[in-house]
Structures are given as structure tokens and as C-alpha cells.
Amino acid sequence: MLLKRIEAKTLAEAIARVAAECGDDALVVETRPTRNGYLVVATRPETQLAPIDQAGRKNLGDSQRWTRGFAPMAQRASEFGLSNRLLAAIEQSLLGTRVELGRVGDPALGGLCARILQALVKVEPRFEGKRGSDQFRAIAMVGSTGVGKTTTLAKLASRAVQNGEDIAILTVDTYRVAAVEQLRAFADLLEVPIEVAFTPQDLRRLLQLHSHRDRIFLDTTGKSPLDRTALQTLAGALSGKNFARLLCMPAGMRRCDADMVLDSYDKIGIDGVCLTKWDETLVPGESLSAIIERGLPLSHLAIGQDVPADILAADSLQLAQAAFGLEPTEVLA
Predict the structure, then answer these.
(1) Are 225 and 265 in contact (CB under 8 A)?
(2) Do 271 and 245 touch, CB atoms closer than 8 A?
(3) Of 66, 108, 146, nearest to 331 (Cα)?
């Protein structure tokens, strides 16, 4: 599912562009005013479902496992990438409701499916917002090389400054070419301090130096999930420093790769996951399923390269709607 970000001077103009670029039945994910007008994030509707045979089963391999009524919803969610394990849990939950699973077309089915999935999606809002006892004050961006850690940091840091927070940016990424210079240019643009920590002792000192600030963002070196030594080094550098670990991983990862990443970084500790590059995949459900099944909270979806615009706070209801290809009114009805 590709999300499209459309800006216009008026809301009517933005909606007209959504219809022109995504179709009259486009799904609107978010609408909000901006300094110059309005922003609308939308997506094309899901592809049409395959036909159902006379026995009430999908004409596709393993979808024959589902009840007649649930099969169309299961197929739609499968195309999104949602796992069979999650779909089985949702279908099992439906058995205790009044929805009719023995026939196709029960109007209440879509909304119930989305509500059940919504309850399974944990979200973590403490990576944003004003400083307080219930907010993460020090945030470390962790993840493999090239997953968008630095860009995600830039987006969150920009939003924090827009919210009036006093922030500092730290980095231990001295391996990647021009990594420090990239962050320094960004920090200068925001007029916030940036510091480089070469050792765990440096990091401890810098945390103390900036302890009065509302928020501290730390960029870390990308570590392969297969490099145990590097991950142990990163864990040691973060140990005892009260960093909330925000794992960045691409939304388009295959399930086996997502499981490998989550297994490896679980040893460091995961306080939240940001699914990056959401706009670059048609099947984000595989990585999303891996997160949900482990009970990990999702913090954000990164939907492009623009800073700070192209990042959305995770919304469990909107994700559930997207997974089943529903309009918001179908869930709220």
C-alpha cells in the first residue's frame, strides 16, 4: 500500500487532487492544516478480491482455510501482508459475536475485523510530546544500516522543536562517511546543539551536560542483526543510561528478515518500533505482523524523505482500516 502526501492551499483543492491522483474511492489516512494550507495523506484502494466459488471458498490456495463469510476479508488482509496467525486469531474472536460467518456480505463484518485488529496493535506515544513523567526524554535510534535512523531522528527532532521543546542531538555514528556532518548541518538548521561521543564515557558525560533539556536524541551506528559482537558493543554503550530504544526497520521487510531483526535487537531492548519506508512497499503487513505477534509497540510510520512532514504517529485504528481496506465509516458504523 503506497501512501501519497498531497499539499494544497485549501482543503477542497487537496481533496480534489486526492481524487485525481488516487481515485474517487481513495482512502484518506490523515488530514491536517499546515502553515501554507492543508496536508492530506491518502492511498489508493486495495486491489479487487479474487472471486469466490460456489462453495464459498476463495479460488486461491491456502485461503480455503477460512469460513465462507471471513474469506473475502482474509484475502484482502493477506494481500496487505497480514499473517495467517493473526487472521486466525481474528476469525476466532468473531465466533463469539453476532456476525454471520456462514455467508458472504454481512455488513458488520468489516468493522468488527478492524476493531479486533485494532485491539491487537499496541502503540507507543511517549516518543513525542511535552516533557513529563510519562514521556521518553532520552531516545536512541537503533537498527540496521540504511533503514532510515538518521532521517527519522531528524523528523522527530524537528517536530520536538516545533512543539517548543529544548533539545540536543548526540551521535556515536563515527563510522559512516559524512554521518556527523549530515547531522551537524541539520542541527545548525534547527539551531540546536550537537555532540559527538567517541566512547561510552563521552556519552555519559554528554548526557549529564544536557540533562536539563526536554529531549535528547541519539543517533547510533547501523548494526547488522547477524553481527553479535557489534550488537553487544551497542548494548554496552546504552546500558545504564536510561535511553528509550526506538528500533527503525523498513515496512517492506520479508517476515523472516523482520523476525531476525527483532530477535537480534530484542537483546538490546526495544521500547518502540518505527516502520520506515512505508511508502516503498505494497505489503507492509509482514513486518507489521511480526511486531504485533511479539506484543511490541509501534511508534511511527515514516512515509517519505521530507523532514519533518513525512512521518505519522502510529494509529491502531488507521492501521486496522488499511489492513482490511476499509473506509473509516465502515469501522465506526
Answers:
(1) yes
(2) yes
(3) 108
Is domain 125-313 annotated with CATH 3.40.50.300?
A: yes
Half-sphere exposure of 73 (CA within 13 A, CB side): 30
Residue of 317, 257, 252, 260 lying closest to 285 (CA atoms): 252
Whole-angstrom distance, CA of residue 138 vs CA of residue 127:
9
Q: How do the domains of the chain map onto residue ranges?
A: 3-43, 61-120+324-332, 125-313
Q: Left, alpha or beta for 3 (phi > 0: left; psi -120 to 50: alpha)?
A: beta
pLDDT tens figures, 117-143: 999 999 999 999 766 667 899 999 999
Average model confidence (pLDDT) for the chain? Answer: 87
Which residues have CB under 8 Å from 272's CB, separation 6+?
124, 126, 127, 244, 245, 246, 247, 296, 297, 298, 299
Cell, residue 198:
567517541
Residue 234 buriedness (CB in 10 A; 0-12 / 13-18 / 19+): buried
pLDDT in tens, 56-89: 444 444 546 899 999 999 999 999 999 999 999 9
